[in-house]
Amino acid sequence: MIQQQQPMATLLLMLATTTHQTNARRNSAWSDSLYGRYEGSIEKFFSSLACALFFYKFGTFKGSSRTLWRNYFNKNKKKKHFRLIVYSDTDTTTTTTITDQNDSFSYNYMYDLIVIGGGSGGLKTAKTAADLGAKVALLDYVKPSTQGNTWKIGGTCVNVGCIPKKQMHYAAEMGEKIRQAINYGWKLPGLSDASDNLSSDMFNHFSHEKRSQYFDWNTLVQGVLNTRSGSNFVYKNELKKRKIDFFEALGQLQDAHTVKLTQNSNSSPLLLTSKFIVLAPGGRPYVPSHDEIPGALEHAITSDDLFSLQTPPGKTLIVGGGYIALECAGFLSGLGFDTSVMVRSQILRSGSFDREVVSHLQQSMSSEHFVKFLQPCIPKRIEKLETSNKKRVIYWNTLENREYSEEFDTVMFATGRYADVKGLNLDQVGIAYTKEGKIIVDQEERTNVPSIYALGDVIENGYNLELTPVAIQQGKYLAYRLFHPETNNKRYLVDYNFVPTTVFTPLEYGLVGYSEEKAEKEFGRENLVIYKKKFNILEHKIPEKSEKGFVKLICLKNENEKVIGLHYLGPQAAEVTQGFALAVKKGCTKEEFDDVIGIHPSNAEAFVYLELGVYEDKTCCG
């Protein structure tokens, strides 16, 4: 180990043959350092050293400029090759340390692994690789949304996806529970001066029409942002603890082993090299262009903006019929905001979602949770009113062949997401991708360039499951395969069959496996046995809510009624579905479901009491 400190700058020279690799361990002052690298025969070494000393002496190397100096000479395989690395650091308090690791991973490159993208998949890849002894760099850069919003490390899930969405979902549920509290005997002071009217006042004050008057949007948003910043801090500490070099910078591929790093428009780029590169930049919401829908880019927001909105959304239109649109519509309506969803054809069109369950879900959102559906309709243009901040949406009803217009405080697009690969220089390196921009990978997440891998929302692998747990599993298994030589490669391949998920609408929808439509297409209607029924939700009994839950099992007749699809519509769907997912994945049969003694009273027990021809429970406890 060599340690050296100078009052104004540190110059470290390291020579190593190709058979004895020496690695630079950089401290936090790396971001203000400049490095140059020389590779060439020994007779060229001293001329390169003289150049380095000249530039160092006369101030060409500026720590804040982050300028890269690289000089490659022609290599001769018969001669020994040497590497010169020059560090210059203007921080007078910095000590730069070089450690000879002589490990098996870092042989000809600065890193064993460079990960581009600091979301769930990228973070898991980087941390697992570092835990296995690899030298890792992680790059994360967030392009501003169409409305200028940005965030720190953590990716979509923690910043503008799963976590803030679930927190707002919780907030909406609380409003409904407060309203139902009257039926359970609760009286909240302050809603009425007349104590005799407390109960009726509480019920009326927390009706959907008046609920937003007793809800503070900014308090909720601040809580969401506090959670976000706390997670950002934790992620950075986890990287620091593992000695992972973290750059808040844009990464662009230069070749199969080189990434150009640009931190801002005023800085010169750096070049980093690595044995392996993983692309995990994630996805971003799609917003129609001016030619497609005039005014959309200027006047509409996306999920990238909603969770940090500084003013209450008010009357809101959400364009789109996917799970993001429905989840956001559900919690906004639950918070008391007038909410509409504009759908071109039908909601939840993906083949994974069962049409019968979706029909029950939409009915629940309309009748019990006050979400209006404009269907089948498409927006034509969006105009901002001159006299207010309201937006006028002109849209076309394709069934009636008629144009309508309506004013909203907020318009949000949730019409799909695109792979955020622009700027990665995929063409320059020759990486294959689809016309939609998805990077084509094999079952090991490898692209057609052997040293470059991709994972998460940006990949095309035949499954395309854009789910946080899937990206995490991909990252963990990829790191095992790359940096755990004794691993049996086939053991660490992601199994994409029977992946559970949940849509966090007011009445939640959890599922794993086949929908009835998809199963019929693959196995034939004659080979299926379908068990389904509505069930009474116990917590709705006292408030006398008419809303019911719904469960469904799809079984293969010729395989002893093996369960290949499970669908649950009801409270706490994620908690219910997670456990049943293991049973479905392990191939349990309907008979084995029936052999399980249910937990009573519970909503989940509906699955172990399903019978053919019994569509709705009328009784309880037998």
UniProtKB/TrEMBL annotation:
<dbReference type="InterPro" id="IPR036188">
    <property type="entry name" value="FAD/NAD-bd_sf"/>
</dbReference>
<keyword id="KW-0274">FAD</keyword>
<dbReference type="GO" id="GO:0004362">
    <property type="term" value="F:glutathione-disulfide reductase (NADPH) activity"/>
</dbReference>
<dbReference type="InterPro" id="IPR046952">
    <property type="entry name" value="GSHR/TRXR-like"/>
</dbReference>
<dbReference type="GO" id="GO:0005829">
    <property type="term" value="C:cytosol"/>
</dbReference>
<keyword id="KW-0560">Oxidoreductase</keyword>
<dbReference type="InterPro" id="IPR006338">
    <property type="entry name" value="Thioredoxin/glutathione_Rdtase"/>
</dbReference>
<dbReference type="Pfam" id="PF02852">
    <property type="entry name" value="Pyr_redox_dim"/>
</dbReference>
<dbReference type="GO" id="GO:0006749">
    <property type="term" value="P:glutathione metabolic process"/>
</dbReference>
<dbReference type="InterPro" id="IPR012999">
    <property type="entry name" value="Pyr_OxRdtase_I_AS"/>
</dbReference>
<dbReference type="InterPro" id="IPR016156">
    <property type="entry name" value="FAD/NAD-linked_Rdtase_dimer_sf"/>
</dbReference>
<dbReference type="GO" id="GO:0045454">
    <property type="term" value="P:cell redox homeostasis"/>
</dbReference>
<feature type="signal peptide">
    <location>
        <begin position="1"/>
        <end position="24"/>
    </location>
</feature>
<comment type="similarity">
    <text>Belongs to the class-I pyridine nucleotide-disulfide oxidoreductase family.</text>
</comment>
<dbReference type="GO" id="GO:0005739">
    <property type="term" value="C:mitochondrion"/>
</dbReference>
<dbReference type="InterPro" id="IPR023753">
    <property type="entry name" value="FAD/NAD-binding_dom"/>
</dbReference>
<keyword id="KW-0732">Signal</keyword>
<dbReference type="GO" id="GO:0034599">
    <property type="term" value="P:cellular response to oxidative stress"/>
</dbReference>
<keyword id="KW-0285">Flavoprotein</keyword>
<protein>
    <recommendedName>
        <fullName>Thioredoxin reductase</fullName>
    </recommendedName>
</protein>
<keyword id="KW-0521">NADP</keyword>
<dbReference type="InterPro" id="IPR004099">
    <property type="entry name" value="Pyr_nucl-diS_OxRdtase_dimer"/>
</dbReference>
<keyword id="KW-1015">Disulfide bond</keyword>
<feature type="domain" description="Pyridine nucleotide-disulphide oxidoreductase dimerisation">
    <location>
        <begin position="499"/>
        <end position="608"/>
    </location>
</feature>
<dbReference type="GO" id="GO:0050660">
    <property type="term" value="F:flavin adenine dinucleotide binding"/>
</dbReference>
<feature type="domain" description="FAD/NAD(P)-binding">
    <location>
        <begin position="111"/>
        <end position="475"/>
    </location>
</feature>
<dbReference type="Pfam" id="PF07992">
    <property type="entry name" value="Pyr_redox_2"/>
</dbReference>
<keyword id="KW-0676">Redox-active center</keyword>
<dbReference type="GO" id="GO:0004791">
    <property type="term" value="F:thioredoxin-disulfide reductase (NADPH) activity"/>
</dbReference>
